[in-house]
Amino acid sequence: MDIGYIKLYRKVTSSFVWTNSNMLKLWILCLTKASHKGSRFIFNGQEIVVSSGQFVTGRAVIEKEFNEGVTRDQQIVGRTLWRWLKKFESEQMLSIKSTTKYSVITINKWDEYQSSDQQLSNGRPSSVQQLSTYKNEKNEKNEINNNNNNRAQDNGEVYPAELIQQLYHQFPTGILQGALADWLQEWPREMINFAIQISYDYGKELGSLKPYINAILKRWKDSGILTLEQAIAANEKFKNHQTAKSNDFKKKTVRRETLPSWFDKPKEEDEEKEIQLNSDIEARFQKYLDQKAEREKAEKEKEGE
Q1: Given its phi and psi angles, is residue 280 left (phi above 0), alpha (psi -120 to 50 degrees) or beta?
Q2: CA atoms within 13 A on the CB side of 1
Q3: Per-residue pLDDT band at 23 (split at 50, 70, 90)
Q4: Beta-bridge mates of residue 39
Q5: Would the pLDDT of 257 be above 90?
Q6: What is the mean pLDDT of residues 180-203?
Q7: What is the pLDDT, as a whole number, of residue 61?
Q8: What is the pLDDT of residues 125-158, one digit of tens each?
Q9: Confidence band (pLDDT; 50, 70, 90) for 51?
Q10: 44: phi > 0 → left, psi -120 to 50 → alpha, else beta; which?
Q11: SS3 letters for 73-110?
């Protein structure tokens, strides 16, 4: 999130995060990533809803964002960053709810401190969370005026660039960012996100996203698809069609063995042939025995002479 600002209190200087510059940076990163209002987006074909003060991330994503622009020798590995996040959780600064695919991080008491611009009284808890909050009204005004790479968050969707980073664990290239800006001039963010998700589900690599998404958007445009609901229905129809087509192909390519011409002939004819064959064998065997007997007789007569 590159617009708006957060509210930072002087009490942060008495917090344990102040003693570690990288830990302080991680805490500020969490605050800047937290949504200032409820939002939703499509992740792996599933709609995920986050409330204000929450954001979706993972170890690889947080490592990528934290080390953006940092020289390699100064970078912090994701394992360490995640250990610091767990430290924040133990200090009740935030909570982490993880699945096998992603984690939802919640800044504790976010709404309480977001709702007012007044400084905190001495009677409030000294949690580091109270040191920061979003300026909602200012954020919304900035979002409306921002028409560059991303549309305003009027529908609460995550930015397409962030979704790409979550799925591919890489930040989109400059060319792809330019394409995102062009698409967002014509299509709602939620539909761009869905097109990204479709591409990921079909195994498309990051380098082939631009042409593949262009093809998806063109098909939607030609078909008069203008809403996310229509796009989801069209995608389901397409998948069902592909499944049926695949099944039909399998049926057509089943190998059929060619049966010999005699297979379907009456059983009686087969029996007659078998009898004839046996007779021939017996006749040949009898002839062999006769010839053998004659040879033995001739040999004995020759020995008697």
Answers
A1: alpha
A2: 27
A3: very high
A4: 50
A5: no
A6: 89
A7: 87
A8: 444 444 444 444 445 444 444 443 333 333 335 7
A9: confident
A10: left
A11: HHCCCHHHHHHHHHHHHHCCCEEEEECCCCEEEEECCH
In Å, how far are 82, 157, 170 from 64, measured between CA atoms? 12, 21, 8
Separation between Cα atoms, residue 7 and residue 130, nearest integer Å: 9
**67, 75 Cβ separation under 8 angstroms:** yes
Phi, psi for residue 205 in degrees, rounded to 5: -75, 165
Place of tokens 């992740």: 43
CA count, 13 A, side-chain hemisphere, 236: 7
Contact 183, 153 (CB under 8 A): no
Distances (CA, A) of 132 to 14, 15, 109, 112, 242: 14, 13, 11, 11, 51
pLDDT of residue 45: 58
Contacts of 255 (CB under 8 A, 6+ apart): none
Note the pLDDT of residue 121. 40
Cα–Cα–Cα angle for 105, 107, 111, rounded to 5 degrees = 130
Residues forming beta bridges with residue 56, ordered by sequence position:
104
* Residue of 22, 155, 20, 16 lying closest to 93 (CA atoms): 16
Around Cβ 30, how many Cβ atoms within 10 Å?
22
301's enclosing H/E stretch is helix 267-304
Identity of the residue numbered 14: S
Q: In residues, how long is the chain?
A: 305
How far apart CA 79 and CA 95 sit, in angstroms, is 17
Reading the block at residue 220, the tokens are 């939607």
- Domain boundaries of the chain, sorted by first residue: 6-146, 173-241, 275-305
Cα–Cα distance between 98 and 103 in angstroms, integer? 4
